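Session log. Operator J.P. requested a structure for one protein chain; no other inputs attached. Running the standard single-chain path with token output.
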Amino acid sequence: MALDGIVIKNIVCELERELCGSRVDKIYQPERDELTIVFPEGRLTLSVNPGTARVCLCGSKKENPQNAPMFCMLLRKHLIPSRLSKVYQQGFERIIVMEFDARNEMGDNVKKRLICELMGKHSNIILTDTDGRIIDSIKHIDVSVSSIRQILPGLMYEGAPTQNKKNPLEATEEDIKATLAAFDGSTPADKALLDSFSGLSPLACREIAYRATGSCDTPLSEAFGIEKAAKAFFDDIKECRFTPCTVYVNGEKAEFASFVPKQYGSLGSIEKSDSVSSLLEFFYEGRDREARQKQRTAAVAKLVANLIAHASKKINIYKKTLKDSEEREKFKLKGDLLMANLYRLRGGESSITVENFYDEALPEVKITLDPQKSPAQNAQRLYAKYNKLKTAGEVAAEMLQKTEEELTYLLSVQQFITEIKTSSDLSQIKEELRECGYIKKRKDKQKPQKAKPMEFLSRDGFTIIVGKNNIQNDYVTFKLSRSRDIWLHTKNIPGSHTLIVRGDVEEIPDSTIIEAANICAAHSKAKDGVKVPVDFTEIKNVKKIAGAKPGMVIYDNYNTVYVTPTDYLK
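Structure written below.
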């Protein structure tokens, strides 16, 4: 898969057709490396994320931060309400230039250019003035990052360094023939094309070779007609004759292109798209969402994982202490037996064997003594060990219960982190951790972004509400509910509180309960499980544990259903 010069040309042709002459209404920056420019005709996404860099018209909306970043504010100042007058590709590189008709502070007409460089980790969005001077960029590149080319406010914009390759859109058939003639005849035709012309991906070069010779591996000495095939291919690009499509191999997305690849033959299947924008959005949507989620949640996920490991370690220590405490009665027994046999000791003995008169069989018990201590001191030493183990056991039992409850809570937070989709979801979980003392409280009084619980509509028409974190779990269970609503939760498994809103209906159909149970299981740690137990009861049977962490409840008078969410929710 490659966002090459061909796809860039396809994007430029589409933007010229769809947006040229349109007015900029709004500008957002939902991610630190992504912009959304809103026109009356549609929303334009400009992403310079290294793994999913793209420019395309999109239908989906992202949640925006409460306070717009500085670069976003700058673009609003310079580009609203300008008009997009021109879109073009710089050479045949992966660079899109959008030219806007705007006004300066004096009210004079000026040109502003927004340059999108879509080159993997070097991707950037740069705003320049009429003279090509950089006003600002979404990423600043100083000399410590690159000694060849700096991107900083006030500097003149210079295009990306060329690789001394030729622009295929300017090449004639004779130029192509002469260029390829410079290579050794054993060189594969696709490699010669790749090394000679800019903006071509390996997929495109293999396709040209395949169309000319019927094979992707043909050497130049046998690639008869390669220049004709290349010229026809380049002419299609020049005239904007594109067919955006996705290539599937073994049912999996393998490639995307702005032409129909013939090289796969029967090994692959082709799915055409209505536009290159819909193609890019379809191809990158899932990958971008997963990458963003991982990036957003990395720090808090690591914190919670460390807390879980620490809690698990403490639980093991408390269990060992409890096991050791079970031996305490032996020390008390030996102390009692020693006190009963003090008359037999003269002092200085290292041990004594006595009969255990607490046992009808009167077994002998050997008691180890400290010769440096008196018989009475040895007895007190045994009682001290007994008392120490007894106290340690009592404390360990109490701490074990608290730590197990804490571990249950942390596991629920870990589960909710895996389902974070927006920055407000993350903000609420961070706020929850702050309230519980796991994260330092912020000095500022800025409130976190609010995120609403999820809502579903069952096939029978009942509203099903699902919490996305423990604060929302409490809100769903104790604020949104009425006493006869049905509450669901996976049995002894971290997950979301789920609520079926009964309304005035006397009985809720079994089908709705099963559907809600599947939704509940799908938003739990057992989402990939089989026959997951889900308890359900009326909300009046659910009680908050006094002093417990958010989301921790007890309930009774419940029933249990077993569901497999992976099958039901397909």
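Operator note: The chain has 13 helices and 22 strands.
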